[in-house]
Amino acid sequence: MELKTKFHGDIEVEQEDVITFEHGIPGFEEEREFVILPFEDTPFSVMQSVSTSGLAFVTADPFMHFSGYDLTLPESVVNELEIKEQQDVFVQVIVTLRDELKESTANLQAPLIINKVKSLGKQVVLNDNQYTSRHLIFTKVAEERGV
């Protein structure tokens, strides 16, 4: 199918690449279908709405940027997303990129949980006080470079 995107222009995507968020995502409940696309030559991805070309979220693999990140999914989420095996789960977090890249943040409190096999997704708000919606992504990189 032809898809108009925010960052990639007009592209062709396969229907099997579409991830369905049955209840949308918080704040965008009417948006239920997304695709995940690479974001140029960066460690980020773009979660692009299928129905709204101007709606796309920059996302990242939280385990790549935060080695201690750990989450336990509620049983209700496992059932809703029909998760059978741990390796079927793909986790992303929404990233807010700032003009000064070192000030960019990731929302570790509300990860996007995706069942790769069933193409089902849900943004889950964790009840874990150690995670917030604004974790600096480049803290270690900035420290290493003396920034």
Indicate the CATH architecture: Roll
**Helix content bin:** 10-25%
Q: Please, what is the average pLDDT?
A: 91
From the N-terminal CA to the C-terminal CA, the straight-line distance is 44 Å
By CATH, the superfamily comes out as BH3618-like
Oligomer: single chain
Total of DSSP H or I helical runs spanning 4+ residues:
3
Task: Please tally the β strands and state the result.
Answer: 11
Order of helices and strands: EEEEEEHHEEEEEH
Domain module tally:
1
Task: Find the CATH topology.
Answer: BH3618-like
Q: What is the rounded Rg?
A: 16 Å
Your description of this structure?
With 147 residues, this protein is mainly β. It has a single domain (2-144), classed as BH3618-like (Roll), CATH 2.30.290.10. It has helices at residues 62-65, 75-80, 139-144, and strands spanning 2-4, 10-12, 19-20, 33-38, 44-49, 56-60, 89-96, 105-106, 112-115, 120-123, 135-136. Strands 3, 4, 5, 6, 7, 8, 9, 10 and 11 form a nine-stranded antiparallel sheet that branches. A two-stranded antiparallel sheet has the order 1-2. A hairpin with a 6-residue loop joins strand 5 and strand 6 (56-60). The longest helix is centred in the middle third of the chain and has 6 residues, at 75-80.
